[in-house]
């Protein structure tokens, strides 16, 4: 029995009918065919498994255009141009892609975004530059439920510079509010580091209000955009944001380990000294002189040789977002998460599942998290059957819905699979064959 057959048999076909109708009228639905494995046997192969993917907020699907782009690069740009490629394009590529990303998804004007390093390294460089620019201040403000990298990096910087960490207590089912920030910042605050979208709950922070509150205290703010870039509109310039970092392998589909991006507001660039001084950030890259002189502009925040191959794939999704418009991407994201919540309420809540994400879409990013003590086991079984959400301790299953590649029927199938597996576990049937419909 297929998933759809079993659902109809249970009298729950209204949700499926809704999903099919939404897919028919979805103005972004045709973009789904641009991804490997979705209506494209030429790339994925005719025997590729049918995968229900609910983890685009951790690693996005590859685009078909990126397969062609990388293949062409290996054979032509690298294969025939060889080292001449640096003069042809590669030297400028981190800034070219940075400007494109800034325009399409970040609300950032030219010359303020660069591609390079991992999120962790980029976060370290910008945070360290920020606190060093305010030597008379002694505190960094952060929250207890921020992503581990953010907390670990800031603890290391505090130890290096003799600074104090001031913690905002944030709930794993919520996020940081402007009132909490106002209560935490003061005359000793040098830097506030927060996530735009909380990695666990999906809580969407109020960037303009929090940024304004930080500035009222005379401090700088650095926003982590890892779970928002490419899914939620960001207006860095308009909101007066000082610094931002984010990864490119989630909603930007850059691929595993693709380099991060960094944003530094133009007015701040001359005043900040980044701590990892490498040749790519020098004023004259090929002078090879005895002393380091930083480049003007955003290039000064680069360090070593950029990962050119690693940054190729994100260009195709950035181009799609620019073509569609980030507001349209967000509108579909909201519709998908609203539908997923409807399914959760109908199927999972009666089995003891709780929703660990904001109900109001104005306070929610592109994923939702549902909690139950059995979710670690549920996730393991689902992965074995090519249904792929992810798990976050202690008991959260995250449902990540990428607007350009996820359909409503795929969302339906995924949540229905969670329902079937959880039901089997609660009835003591786990491991007794495939869950219904899988």
UniProtKB/TrEMBL annotation:
Its cofactor is pyridoxal 5'-phosphate. It is an enzyme of class 3 (hydrolase). SUPFAM superfamilies: PLP-dependent transferases. Keywords: Hydrolase, Pyridine nucleotide biosynthesis, Pyridoxal phosphate. It catalyses: 3-hydroxy-L-kynurenine + H2O = 3-hydroxyanthranilate + L-alanine + H(+); L-kynurenine + H2O = anthranilate + L-alanine + H(+). GO terms for molecular function: kynureninase activity; pyridoxal phosphate binding. Pathway: Amino-acid degradation; L-kynurenine degradation; L-alanine and anthranilate from L-kynurenine: step 1/1; Cofactor biosynthesis; NAD(+) biosynthesis; quinolinate from L-kynurenine: step 2/3. One of its GO terms (cellular component) is cytoplasm. InterPro entries: Aminotrans_V_dom, Kynureninase, PyrdxlP-dep_Trfase, PyrdxlP-dep_Trfase_major, PyrdxlP-dep_Trfase_small. One of its GO terms (biological process) is L-kynurenine catabolic process. Residues 118-372 form the Aminotransferase class V domain. Its EC number is 3.7.1.3. Catalyzes the cleavage of L-kynurenine (L-Kyn) and L-3-hydroxykynurenine (L-3OHKyn) into anthranilic acid (AA) and 3-hydroxyanthranilic acid (3-OHAA), respectively. PANTHER family: KYNURENINASE. Belongs to the kynureninase family. Homodimer. This is Kynureninase. It comes from Cryobacterium zongtaii.
